[in-house]
Here is the input.
Amino acid sequence: MGLKEGRKVALEQYIANYAALGLDPDRTQVYFQSSRPIVQRLGFQLGRRTNLSEFEAIYGFKGETNLAHVQAPLVQAGDILHPQTDEFGGLRPIVVPVGVDQDPHLRLTRGLASKTNWFNLKEGKHAGLTVALSVQDDNAAALGQQPNGRVDREVRQGVFDRIVERLNALGFSDLRPNPKHGTVEVPSASKRDLAAVRLALLGLERELGDGSDATCVNVSPLCRRP
Here is the structure.
């Protein structure tokens, strides 16, 4: 099916069916991936976080798979994540109402988003949560990592002061920051606090990255199947 015919089917069948099911047009944006540049741009940016081996494991791609087919899942990931960019509303959970056949796209997107996060968040060994820096090539300077591998203590301390400030605003006061090891322990936090803490840290990422397009993929999708 060509692009022109695909658009016709989408407009005359899919969108009409959605409207018949009660979708509120005043609260809905209908768009084509091919006409929303940020979807394509995010796809290219996210492509830096994966490789052909991962695509082979998830999708079963082989050596004869054409590159257009390889690019398609990255466009899907950009499609899922772009509503969290500042241009389209900012950070918030994303629910993706798709069938089980689309599960590979959701797993890929979760993985790509987590790889871009500047702060890793996990449950502590005994209790609480632990925040750990994820130093990458494109955020090393902002997190105080110098090209020679040494740590700029002043910059690193500034980052940790802002992490502590964000966590204090959420009501946590029993923090154990360790700039040397790049971690902050939050003993009183629980698994229920994961979403709130993650969202606060994602907001800090965007501030540290000056809100540029280069940091707009630092989001964590909450993709669910119905």
Summary: The longest helix spans residues 3-20. Strands lie at 119-123, 129-133, 176-178, 183-186. Residues 1-30 form one domain. The chain is about 45% helix and 10% strand.
